[in-house]
Amino acid sequence: MFREMRRIKQLMPEEEAIRILKSCSTGVLAVSGDDGYPYTVPLNYTYEDGRLLFHCALVGHKIDAIKANDKVTFCVIERDDVVPDTFSTNYRSVVVFGRARILEGDDEKRSALEALIAKYSAGFEEAGQREIEKDWNNVALVEVKIEHITGKVARALVV
Fold first, then answer.
1. CA proximity to 132, closest of 143, 145, 120, 116
2. Tens digit of pLDDT for each residue in 49-64?
3. Residues in Cβ contact with 102 at an 8 Å cutoff, skipping those fewer than 6 apart
4. CA–CA gap between residue 5 and residue 28 (Å, rounded)
5. Second label for 151, Cα 20 to 30 Å away, from 7, 14, 28, 36?
6. In whole angstroms, what is the distance from residue 24 CA to residue 5 CA?
7. β-bridge partners, 77
């Protein structure tokens, strides 16, 4: 179903790709947008148990697109060092393919928000709980269940 990477020698092990997903703070979500145009948007996320979690507004382009087509891709770039004299870039990146689902149950929504707080605001859990309560009715939580993951590393960085 998913294409094999063309430059297979640059494929990183899945465990390394997951480590990168866990360590990066921002990724780019791609959905099928209006009139067949792809729509991409950078966002904060967390990785947990084979899935990505993120929050967003209750209404908007991203939510509409997910409701219309749950197939998404997500990309993070851990390293992006341009090497001018070799006309290349030393990079490490991960691309995920998966299915997005808007979380409905209070328990799963709270769990997702707490996972985001743990990643981005560790040490501020009490204040994070107050923030959750304050914004509870104004936030949507989305889970992307990962179906395929590919990590790629520049040839110069392959060991």
1. 116
2. 999 999 999 999 999 9
3. 63, 66, 67, 140, 141, 142
4. 20
5. 36
6. 22
7. 93
